[in-house]
Amino acid sequence: MNPDILSDMPLSYRKIVPVLLPYPFKEPFDYIIPHDLKIEKIIPGTLVIVPLNQRKEIGVVWQDHVLSGNLSLLSTPKKEKRKLKEIISILPIQPLPRVLMQFIDWMANYNFTESGSVLAMAIRNIRTLTVPLKKEYGWIKTSPLPTNLKITEKRKKILDFMNIPDQAYTTRELTENLHIKPSVIYGLEKSGGIFKQPLTNFTQFSKPDPNFHQPSLSEEQTKATTFLKKQVDKKKFSVTLLQGITGSGKTEVYMQAIASCIEQNKQVLVLLPEIALSAQWTNRFYKRFGVNPALWHSDLGLKHRKQTWMAILKNEVFVLVGARSALFLPFYDLGLIIVDEEHESSFKQEEGVIYNARDMAIVRAKLSSCPIILVSATPSMETLINAHQGKYFHLTLTKRHGGAIMPRTELVDMKIHPPEKGHFLSPPLVKATQEKLDKNEQVLFFLNRRGYAPLTLCRACGYRLECPHCSAWLVEHRCTRKLVCHHCDYSIPVPLECPHCNTKNSLVPIGPGIERITEEASITFPDAKILVMSSDCLNSPKMTAEAVRRIMQKEVNLIIGTQIVAKGWHFPDLTLVGVIDADLGLTGADLRAAEKTLQLLHQVGGRAGRARFPGTVIIQSFLTDHPVMETLIKGDFNQFMIEEAHERKAGFWPPYGRLAAIIVSADTNQDALETAQELGLNAPSRDGVIVLGPAPAPLSLLRNRYRQRLLLRTHKSIAIQPILHQWLDPIKPKKNVKITVDIDPISF
Ligand code: ADP
Ligand code: ZN
């Protein structure tokens, strides 16, 4: 590999450098280079330790005017020289790549935040680099197991869970995921079933073998592959939408593009919407390339992340698969970026720095001069329109691999086939499920709602149990016997009487969550082996890997899950998908409700019939005439989206215009409203700019903060950031009032 480290610049006459610190600072601070530091070692990107308010902090020697490409190492110091502090030392590692610094500045500017906040995301994992870490240990399964090993039920649980070969599992992972005591683990060690190993080297980051296993591709796949390989070879920026029906082999196709990139010794970044997916993805990668890819997500230990971070900086990593934060890794030589399931809203980070990782990945590719592939069966509106307008290349795969056919979709009109009172499974769904279970095939019930019931109501006085800190109902979780707020995690034990009128035993659950569906299913299908998949029970990739193993090995035949099951899973024996409440996302004022519901239901339906047996999707709905339902039956997704887009064109709603949400939050509604109204009065007025609001934000109370919202919409030809600056910069709200800007909000 050939790292593009910046050539040194003549610095002998410059003793002051700008250093960006990982805090909400818009700009770098000036620091003096002391005499005992080698000045030529300090170039833009160098990591240094500097004093900041009596503390030592890691910062990065920044560059002025990155965007204009002028890399002068400093203009005039902003403070008087004698007030400037000195750099303490230089970290003995490579400087950050220049493209990463450009990306950070661009990102900050576009998303209306500070460069320092974005830098914090990029170097968060090395902040403690100088602090020695305590030794961590993990457990590895002995292979083969000793013949005389006594396998108790708890031990079996552990051994089954450790199903990734040679992978070390920490004590915490085992105890938390399996609900066992550490003593069981130690016992198993004594008997020789597992052994202890220091977690020193997590992966060797060895080079994947592009020819390890070459699949034979279909004609369609070959065509798409040839095109993508050409893009990789060009080493230029381009965006390609790879759209193909579920199970058409999109992953197989983009793996070919990855192979090309590996042959050229360039780095590949693959973004997945959900870390839970990384286990199945890694397995697949292993089969194709003979090694594991590097991983990146928040669930990995600090040490693991540090090693990976350093390896990337040293250009030792070839392929990295990760969650959105992987965008900020210090890649020197990216040759390809892939965003799988690009339409997923989890690519949007809604807290801290608000950004859309899909969009930022495109920028990162542009700055790195490499191609990017956006992959989806149901692309987002933005992507689809860009492809239609010829801004993106558009590849389509229309056939499922190996002759599998697309599932047949049936609507069950819940007005005509109502379930029994207090039940949620309609007779047609029950019948179809029983048939599949009898044939030893697998069934999936999908309901996008965690917990037992979304609402608890008093039968006597009509009181609804609400979160005291948020404008949201408390959701009953029967397994923990608690009422929980899904927005702030506030929880109380389920009360025995109504907190309002004190009537005893008057509280009733209203509507279903997946716990309730599980309860009903276990009564309706007493012989079914049920597995629940929701973020409440699958809280780590290893836990998910275990669930996937149980499905693949057919230890279960009825899977009940929330949106986590809708992702890109491949379960060959799954032949029926039942959507319990298809109307769930369609109510409410969100302009994107139809688009999102269609994507979700299409995606979950796509889990059915992916291999030998044909699949069926049964959709329970009260709104059987809704265009979304019609589209699900007819399957013409793109046509629906293009018509939807057309309706947004006139009002220049996205994707035809630019949009920003301005959220004003405060401790009291009064304060939030005052500032929001002030913003309203000073709203920019010119052609092609529209301001809506203020109005209460969708969650008007969140974690004790009252929230008002304004929407700024501009014509596509008008840049939204300068308008925001002009508008918001002069506003000086009270101390407890906070103004947050969300560029390209995903709900509006
Ligand atoms: P998608 O990503 O479009 O949903 P996948 O890439 O997951 O589809 O492919 C679906 C299934 O078909 C997977 O099990 C995959 O391994 C298999 N498959 C796809 N293309 C090929 C191929 N050319 N040769 C062998 N298996 C393939
Ligand atoms: Zn709450």
Protein architecture, described:
Component of the replication restart primosome. The strands form 8 sheets. Strands 11-12-10-13-16-9-17 form a 7-stranded parallel β-sheet, sandwiched between helices. Strands 5-2-1-4-3-6 form a 6-stranded mixed β-sheet. The radius of gyration is 27 Å and the shape is globular. Helix 1 crosses helix 2, helix 6 packs parallel to helix 7 (250-263) and helix 15 packs parallel to helix 16 (627-634). It has 6 domains: 11-126, GIY-YIG endonuclease (3-Layer(aba) Sandwich); 137-198; 219-397, P-loop containing nucleotide triphosphate hydrolases (Rossmann fold, 3-Layer(aba) Sandwich), CATH 3.40.50.300; 408-453 and 512-645, 3-Layer(aba) Sandwich (Rossmann fold); 455-510, no CATH class; 654-743, 2-Layer Sandwich (Alpha-Beta Plaits). The protein is α/β, with parallel strands linked by helices.
Number of strands: 32
Query: Superfamily at the CATH H level of the largest domain?
Result: P-loop containing nucleotide triphosphate hydrolases
Helix content bin: 25-40%
DSSP summary: helix tally? 19
